[in-house]
Amino acid sequence: xxxxxxxxxxxxxxxxxxxxxxxxxxxxxxxxxxxxxxxxxxxxxxxxxxxxxxxxxxxxxxxxxxxxxxxxxxxxxxxxxxxxxxxxxxxxxxxxxxxxxxxxxxxxxxxxxxxxxxxxxxxxxxxxxxxxxxxxxxxxxxxxxxxxxxxxxxxxxxxxxxxxxxxxxxxxxxxxxxxx
Length: 180
Fold this sequence. Notes:
The protein is of the alpha+beta class. It folds into 2 domains: about 10-70, Arc Repressor Mutant, subunit A (Orthogonal Bundle), CATH 1.10.10; about 80-160, Glutaredoxin, CATH 3.40.30.10. It is built from 7 helices and 4 strands; from the N terminus they run H-H-H-H-E-H-H-E-E-E-H. It has helices at about 10-20, 30-40, 45-55, 60-70, 90-95, 95-110, 150-160, and strands spanning about 80-85, 120-125, 140, 145. The chain has a 4-stranded mixed β-sheet with strand order 2-1-3-4, with helices on one face. Strand 3 and strand 4 form a beta hairpin. Helix 3 packs across helix 4 (about 60-70).
């Protein structure tokens, strides 16, 4: 029997949302962080989660849905635990991003939507992750960016996550002060 989800924010979550509202002259400006809080709590933004955010901010559900549907970082359907956004735009594409993306799809045995056979991973192309100097790059579940991605680095990360490990910590990337 499926567990019923109670769509409500905790007192701490409500306080966090109020802290975002207080930063802006218009509560509409707090929609994005409130959506993020809801997505972190529920895993994705169902119509019930969107209505909860709307009620908390005293906005229309249509407005909140409009914001959520515009940005790819908000999930409008249930998704696997780990999302890999691999940059394949010009710079990363020329540095091997397209080849890593194709290898990743094959390695994960994804379906047409980019979902892995084991249900743990979702892969999609990213247009730009703003790290052209360290390409190709991959963002993992809207958080950590993996720089200088190659097929070995990708496979190592997948196996780490499959075995219950974590995404590597933030990797400082020095700027190239002597371009050649």
